[in-house]
Amino acid sequence: MGKTRGPATTKTASAEISSVKPICQNESQITETLKKLLLDKLQSRQYPKTICPSEIPRALSQSEFASMGVSEWRDLMPLVRTILFDMRSEGEVEILQKGQVIPPETTLEDIKGPIRARVVPSDGD
Q: pLDDT tens digits, residue range 27-39?
């Protein structure tokens, strides 16, 4: 039996940033920093290799956490996931769960559990 859900809503990275209270950086700087780190990590893996979104905040130092106004990597995970879904809507990445690409109509709020991400395959892949 399926669950009934309300209307689909999507958060953007700027909406999600409210949970991350910056000290030294503004909201857009934090989002841009995390997106750049995501792109760098994604581009370091050839298709069809994937990344775990937690690889990004786990690689940050304690001083970087402090500059972003968080105390640990887990505090950044909602924002990282939101950025990935924004990137997916721009056609930059595919998001997978249980080894399968999630359908385009699936929103971040629909996802429960771990996800992985990879670059969208180029025409030659």
A: 899 999 999 999 9
